[in-house]
Each structure stands twice: as structure tokens, then as C-alpha cells.
Amino acid sequence: MTHEPTPRPASPHTHRRGFLGVAAAGLAGVMLAPGVRLMEVAQAATSTTTAGVSPKVRWGMLIDTGKCASGCTACVTACNSENGLSGGTLPTDSQWIRKLELTHAGSGNTVSMPMMCQHCAEPPCVDVCPTGASFKRADGIVLVDKHICIGCRYCVMACPYKARSFVHEPLHNQKTDVPRGVGTAEGCTLCVHKVDQGEQPACVTACAEAEHGAILFGDLNNPESDIAKRVASYPSRQIREDLNLNTGVRYSGI
User: Fold this and answer.
1) CATH number, domain at 76?
2) The pLDDT value given to residue 34
3) What is the pLDDT of residue 15?
4) Strands 59-64 and 249-252
């Protein structure tokens, strides 16, 4: 007598792949701005700007809190302008960078510093994302793929830096280079659209133009870069070093 083999249940990965396919197909037509769609922006970016992304590079920032002026919001204003954010005029809009004032409990000394996505080498937002929408590029920049983000906000809760936001309302008059979408999570991208063109993030440029020069951007893996030399020569710290996330953003003077 011949026995037919018992069919094996479908792997959870199979269901997940099927879900992702449906989600991606559904989001491909999400409108970003008049005449601009998520899929079209992604395809254009992939073909023209990301071909040179390499794991040999680790983009990062070094922020000198001794040069960061209290009350100065040049970096925040530049980020809002570059990425099409409201700057707080809409209560539910995202904030990708914010200024913090920290006071030492013992000495009473106060330092001012910008806080944004820390672009961790071991990002908690990526670990908890159920669809793979939150991901880290080969060069260390942490991003969100709007095609497959389902708006669960796990990444928002997992980020120890409160650097992830959620888009609550439909968006209008968006920047073509910065795809965003209602119902998705987002955060600082290190101005990846500028970095891929060989330019500096908007906050870095604005800080320099304000004559503070508190933010240094560059390749942490290149020992000949200014940022790598500075990190090797002078003390700097990561926020929440105890979490062992190996952040791409470092601070001196704290």
C-alpha cells in the first residue's frame, strides 16, 4: 500500500514573502506629490545614485557640543527646509532633528546638542521591523522603505533616541528627492539624496554657514578622513553607550 506524504505546512517565511509582494504592489501607486510616485522615485534613485554604495564606507557625524550654540536652531531649520517638514507648524508632522539642552546634575554645566537618528551599526528599529521596511544600507545609513512600511510603529517604540516619527496626515508640496508617505515611519536620512551626489547633509552646511562648525560629517572607516582623525585623536562618546549599538553619530564635550 502506498502512502501519500503528508503535505508540510507553509513556512511563515512563505506567508511573509506573499504579504510583502501584496504590500509592495499596493504601495507602488501611492502618490507623493503631483506626478510623483514612490516606485518611480525609488527606481530613479537606484539607477542613478546608489550604485556606488559600499560597505567599505561608514558615513557618520561628530558633533562638538563646545561649538554648538545654545538657542541656535540653524540645523533644525535647514533639515525642515531640505526635507519638506513643517518645522512644528503642523502638530502631527515629523521632526527629524531637535535641539537638546543638557545640564550636568553635579556641576550644573549646560551643553546644547542636536539629536537625530544615530544611524546605528546594530539598529533596534531594524531588528523589530516585521516587514524589513526599516533597513541599514551598506554604508551605514539607516532608512525606511516606504513601499513595505505598514505603519505598525514598532520602530518608533524601539528607538532609544526618540528619532523616529510617523506621518499622520496626507502630505502636499513635497520635495521630489525626499519620498514620504502618509501612514509610514520616517526619520533622519543623513540627507542621503545629497550624500549620494557627493554633498554634505543640510544640517552640516547650515551649521558651517552659521559660523559654528559644530558638526563634522565624513567616512568613519577612512583613516585619512577628517572625522576619523578627530575621533582617533580626541575623546568622543556615543549616546547610550551601554546599549552597544555602535552609533554613526558621535559627540565630544559630554
Assistant:
1) 3.30.70.20
2) 37
3) 45
4) parallel
Tell me the mean pLDDT in the region 8-35: 43
Name the domain count of the chain: 1
Per-residue confidence band for 188, with pLDDT thresholds at 50, 70 and 90: very high
**52: nearest Cα among 156, 195, 166, 158:** 195
CB neighbours of residue 149 within 10 Å: 24
**Measured distance between the N- and C-terminal CA atoms of the chain, rounded to whole angstroms:** 77
Q: Is 123 helix (H, G, I), strand (E, B) or coil?
A: coil
105 in a structural domain: yes
CA nearest neighbour of 155 among 138, 132, 189, 181: 132
Give phi and psi for 78, each to the nearest 5: -65, -40
Using DSSP's 3-state secondary structure scheme, residue 44 falls into: helix
C-alpha pair distances (Å), 214 with each of 70, 111, 208: 12, 12, 7
